[in-house]
Every structure is written in C-alpha cells, then in structure tokens.
Amino acid sequence: MTQIFGHRGASGYYPENTLISFEKALEMGVDGLELDVHFTQDGELVVFHDFELHRLTGEKGFIFQKTLAEIKTLKVHAKNRTASIPTLQEVLSLIQVFEKASGKKIMLNVEFKAGSVHYPGIEEKTYALCLTYLPNQQLIFSSFDHYALKTLKSAHPEAQIGVLSTAALIDPWKYVNTLHGDFYHPHFMTLNEKELSKLKAHDTKINTYTVNSTDTAKKLILAGVDGIITDYPDKLIALKSKL
Ligand code: G3P
Ligand code: MG
C-alpha cells in the first residue's frame, strides 16, 4: 500500500518544516514525514527548506552564516502563524514521543539540502543523529545532490537512499542502480503510465513528490507507487481509505 509522507510536515496548513507542522501531520495519520536539513555556521543540524532565510523569516542572509543561537531568535511566518526553526534533534524527539504514545512506526525522509551551498560532513552527522532515534529501516535519505547520496552510501551501505530528480531521466532504474539507490524520488510530472510500468518492471521503488491533487494521487496509488509526498496528507489519507 502506498505510504503517505507529509511534505515539510502538513505544510499546506501549517508553517513548513516546523514542529507544529510535523505534529499535525503525525496527528493526521501520515506513514512518514519529509523534511530538509542544513548546517548552521556552528555545525548544528536545522530543519528548513531554503538556503536563504528571507522568504520565511524576513531576515537577510543564508542559514550557514548564522549560529544556532542566532537561528533560534528568528521566526518563520507562514500560513498566518509564527513558529521557530527546529533542530533536527527536536523533530526526531517529537517523532519518538509520538511513536511511544501511538504505538505506530513512522518513516522519516531526510533531504540533504546540499548543492548550491556545500555542507561537508552533513551526511555522516545527520545519519548518526537519526540512528539514535529511529532504526535504519524507518529512514530514507534523499537529495538532489547525488554526490551527497554517494558519500552516505559509500560509508554506510545499509543506509537507505532516495535519488531525487526534478526532470525526467533516461532509464532512471539504471541510474538509481548505479548509485546503489534504494528509492527513486521523481517529481510526479515526470511519471506517465509508460514510465511507471517500466519502473515497476525493473522493481524500482518510487516515492514521488509533491502531489497535492487527489486525482493525480489516485492514479499514482492505483499504479502502485510506494510513497507519495504531499503538503495535504489528510486529503491523501482519506483518499487511500476509499480505494
Ligand atoms: O523530497 C521531496 C521534495 O521535498 C523535494 O523538493 O524543494 O520541496 O525540497 P523540495
Ligand atoms: Mg524537501
């Protein structure tokens, strides 16, 4: 059955990548959460999407130019709310508390925001921290920076990686295999019926993003994708229960 991942939490309703967004997504009944990680100037892992602070906080500059203490003075303004930028540890702790209270197991897709800014060592530090809260089989590490995935997989072959892509790839199953990838994480617009059946024929596991239309989600669920990453997890969970 297709797993539903809350994209940056329940970011269609709450400020993306904040504790309230993750908490609400968990309460909606997600199978998993997706989030983005960066290093602060002092090497702490924080959960935020953009490299630059401005869109969400109004502050100038980049995440990597601020210490964690400075980041903690900022507020995310979105969806008519204000919230703090969480550390990765705070989100992991929230998941752990939820798992204990609910008896559910939650998948976590951690996306390394490596690429235009480089964060040497982010893969190792993130993986080590995640493993102190969740077992390996509940963790998927993804990135558009495939060097980051290669770095993690080379050091830890048991770590599950998801190969993110915005554009359609030629024979993606071959490329994913080259990276020893566990999942292909394509933008949903790159998936048509033909492509999906080829991916299925090659046993490529697919978690696709960011699907907010229930019509599109229905087609993808019926086609047997492994996971869907959405800003509106409640809508897709309701849809899934009717199929
Ligand atoms: O991991 C899926 C999706 O989050 C990738 O794109 O830009 O929303 O992080 P983005
Ligand atoms: Mg992301």
TrEMBL record:
Record-linked SUPFAM superfamilies: PLC-like phosphodiesterases
InterPro entries documented for this protein: GP_PDE_dom (IPR030395), PLC-like_Pdiesterase_TIM-brl (IPR017946)
Protein name: Glycerophosphoryl diester phosphodiesterase
Keyword Cell membrane applies: no
Pfam families named in the record: GDPD
Keywords linked to the UniProt accession: Hydrolase
Annotated GP-PDE domain residues: 2-240
Species: Fusibacter tunisiensis
Protein EC: 3.1.4.46
Single annotated GO MF: glycerophosphodiester phosphodiesterase activity
Keyword Hydrolase: yes
